[in-house]
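Appendix B. Worked example

We walk through a single record from start to finish. Start with the input: the chain for Leucine--tRNA ligase, Flavobacterium frigidarium, length 953.
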Amino acid sequence: MKYNPNEIEAKWQKYWAENQTFAASNNSEKPKHYVLDMFPYPSGAGLHVGHPLGYIASDVYSRYKRHQGFNVLHPMGYDSFGLPAEQYAIQTGQRPEDTTRVNIDGGFDKEGNKIAGYRKQLDKIGFSFDWSREVRTSNPDYYKHTQWIFIQLFNSWYNKNSDRAEDISTLTKVFEKEGNANINAVCDDEIAIFTADEWSAYAKETQEKILLQYRLTYLAETEVNWCPGLGTVLANDEIVNGVSERGGFTVVRKKMTQWSMRISAYAERLLQGLNEIDWSESIKESQRNWIGKSIGAMVTFKVNGHPENISVFTTRPDTIFGVTFMTLAPEHPLVQEITTPEYEEKVNEYILASSKRSERERMADVKTISGVFTGAYAEHPFTKEAIPVWIGDYVLAGYGTGAVMAVPCGDERDYAFANFFKGQNGMLPIKNIFDKDISEAAFGSKDGFQLVDSDFLTGSGYKEGTKKAIEALEKLNQGYGKINYRLRDAVFSRQRYWGEPFPVYYVNGLPQMIDGQYLPIVLPEVEKYLPTEDGLPPLGNATVWAWDTTANKVVNTDLVDNTTIFPLELNTMPGWAGSSFYWMRYMDAHNETEFASKEALAYWESVDLYIGGNEHATGHLLYSRFWNKFLKDKGFAPTEEPFKKLINQGMILGTSAFVYRLEGTNKFVSKNKMEGQNVQPLHVDVSMVNSSDELDVEKFKTWREEYKDAEFILDENGKYIVGREVEKMSKSKYNVVTPDAICEEYGADTLRLYEMFLGPLEQAKPWNTAGISGVFGFLKKLCRLYFDEHNMIVTDDAPTKDNLKTLHKTIKKVADDIENFSFNTSVSQFMICVNELSTQNCHSRAILEPLAIVISPYAPHIAEELWSLLGNEGSIAMVPFPVFEPKHLVESEKEYPVSFNGKMRFTITLPLDLTKEQIEEIVMKDERTIKQLEGRTPNKVIIVPGKIINLVG
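Next comes the structure step. The output line below is what the pipeline stores for this chain.
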């Protein structure tokens, strides 16, 4: 019999599909275990060998937990809305729903290129996914629930007293009874105070506008990252070096009316929840930094000659007597109000320039110092001195209040700013309020100082000074103590087509929610996916996009009469909408009325193990935790946190290949012949290079038209040797290796074992196809324990002690490794095990049957085949994992080296429980000892039980 992976794997993948082997039950007597992979986006490029790394790890773990007797939910689906599909549709003239479907299911694109399809690629690798629960965020039967959750957010407010979200009706009841003076809510700033009578007297529209200031999702004019080239707003993590990550288009800051989510309401709970979950410290720290809790004070500075005030949040109110200037964000609403005519031109130029830099770029750039004086002055709360007001792009409009009270003696950025503009009109000299030297740098510590030249704060330290300053500010009614967070409300609108439609129509410009019973509001067809000529989002091109409040359905846009038929929202939801609750949808994927039933949610509770890339450290993981906490408040989610344990897999890197073109020619020189030559390195497709780094020159010449007449300077062996470099695996670097090719040549089990063998799961590691043949050889060697060229050779012979020792050593090692996610060392142990059993000539069923189970999580296809050939019925997937028996690892005998005057002459195997006297008696009577001594009596016999025997003299 021969190991034929293609035949074996196709057989068992078909068996699993037909028998629904991995379908999880929502009602089982077994304990539950929920293993989740981060939602993949199905691009046309398909999978390369780096993508399945986390999936293989989660699959090994899922299969192991099934062997342990758990009811395992291991689902898979697709985060199928998003900008990439829309951009591809715009470029190729295809519908994004068509390209998305082909990318998932396989088929042909517009140019006739065959697309393998994510589903087929995943199936080839033999994952134990419960495909009966597959979801796609772009399917209406999925996004109807996204729309429903949006409506729940709209109809909720955050009550600080109860510290949770509550229905908006509870807020209106308070308004009706006592007004809003005593409401303790997370809401917009500077809401006007009204009484119960005033509330009742307000028109319905006025009441709705007020409620928008409290709702958890609301419309507001917001500073956004606008990308004209893509025609949409981008999140911070979609921008790299000031341009869009996709396409490299310019991004500018501008104000737009947008839907926002009041995630800031959950800042403290998001922070505290990190203490309850098993995540890596680096990911937790990323979230803590993003949430950015600061304890300090709000301070109000009056502006000379203007009715407006500048509000500032500071963590150092103790340094208030060191303020020598103020800095506003260029986007701050007061800038245009207070700028004097003589500085207006410079201020406007600076605002335009800074709008072209992303917030992330502005935060990261600590070297560039720029700013402009507004000509305006603020008044110091205590000294009443005039303080010049500047603008600078190191201050962000969305962080704090968008204003900074600059204390250059105590802050490095303020110090640098003050020194850079030293001597200019509008920049006062640095004032030192510390008993420390600041001639070279600011003194930023909160310890080891006393304040000087600080009026009533002189002589105080940080804690005492902070307390006194806040008390004095409160007496002046110009400040108060406050906890602040860097976390800002999340913009929830996108000016693009391929996303979830909002279930919103507008009456007199005010948003109204469509009743949940009429969901989903299905994305309409449009002729083109670009914004309209007058700048409206792509849905502005839709001809059927209005809401009939009488018929409760979407109707033609030209029927809008603003009486019974109203315009629908033209923006769509962002990519993170559908991925913020998908793990709960998997629990009850076919429920048509709810995103999941209470019974299903109560049974699965939350995800036990979540595996995915650390690129989601802040965005997805924060948003999903926010939605989970909100749904918990509303009585839907059963737990506060969605993901108990999180593991980030490392990246598999590609080994790129380079050819070297002589500058200005079409001549290429081999790597080992290019010394002293002026060459240009160019990426070349790794499929043209063999394991000895030799380029297939003829293939290269036919690769591109420009290379058909290329000339080559070869080495002394007549070969063209390429250069090699480890880089990110990417189509643009031509270093992509597809799992399909590996599965075709070596089989999926080889791919799975090799990816786990490459190194620790959480570390980055380079891919080297040359190493995969060794793993393939291991699997063939494993098979030779079970069958030869013709027949099964497994016997019913009793196993030897060595057989049992090898098996149980492997059982223990593999179980421990899987529990600790040390998958690479398990593969090493399999190799050791098979080598030892081969040396022992072991073909005992008592050893080989449990061995098939132990290797099954890693190499499930061959394990299933061996299990079947051994005469067992059904799948190996649910068979109990072998129990480790420590007794087989306990050494009962020891092979002693027997030495004479320090020189080892022979070995003797003795029981380990013998005394020194018993050992000496046995050794002295041994014929080999008698021969060595030749009648002499040794002066001394040295015996260390379990280690050595040495006869001296």
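Two observations about the output. Residues 48 and 921 are 67 Å apart (CA to CA). DSSP finds 29 helices and 37 strands in the chain.
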